């Protein structure tokens, strides 16, 4: 079912048929719903899972279901590549993204104004998995790319991070990886 959903989402993205349903909403509640689904899966694999919502996060403009899809894909990877006894964290926080520009903020004096108020939200999935070599950290967002540790076998299509990247970019966001082997 996950593979079929990934292929359907990927097909929609390929033909630019993705339409965002942007609404101001509670991002913490959106992510808590995803976490309630994933908690049992992590528990069955004997992986500790922690969700840290952002305190006093104002309503945020986002597509509820598509952000859930992104986070589900990230948690799926964390579950696949974290060994039993490991840990996965999902952390949400207001974030000051200096390069983010919203259309109504563009003025000739924009660069002279100091930014001190968060203008974005950062969602971070961390795990104690095997890590990713630096030379593969950009490639993992390409279609059908899968980096498997030696001697391991993993299910999946190699589309999860591609889909996640495209949804995040459609939200005018950015997705990246910070990792080291081991």
Task: Describe the protein.
This protein has 182 residues and is of the alpha+beta class. The chain contains four helices and five strands; from the N terminus they run αβαββαββα. The chain has a three-stranded mixed beta sheet, covered by helices on one side. It has a two-stranded antiparallel ribbon with strand order 1-3. The longest helix is centred in the first third of the chain and has 18 residues. It is globular and about 35 Å long. The mean pLDDT is 82.
Q: Mean pLDDT, rounded to whole units?
A: 82
Beta-strand proportion: 15-25%
Q: How far from one another are the termini?
A: 31 Å
Widest β-sheet, arrangement of strands: 2-4-5
Keywords:
alpha+beta, three-stranded mixed β-sheet, two-stranded antiparallel ribbon, 4 helices, 15% strand, globular
Short synopsis of the structure:
The chain is of the alpha+beta class and 182 residues long. Helix content is 33%, strand content 15%.
Topology:
Elements: H1 2-14, E1 23-25, H2 27-44, E2 48-52, E3 60-62, H3 64-81, E4 87-95, E5 120-127, H4 160-170
Parallel strand pairs: 2-4
Antiparallel strand pairs: 1-3, 4-5
Helix pairs in contact: 1-4, 2-3, 3-4
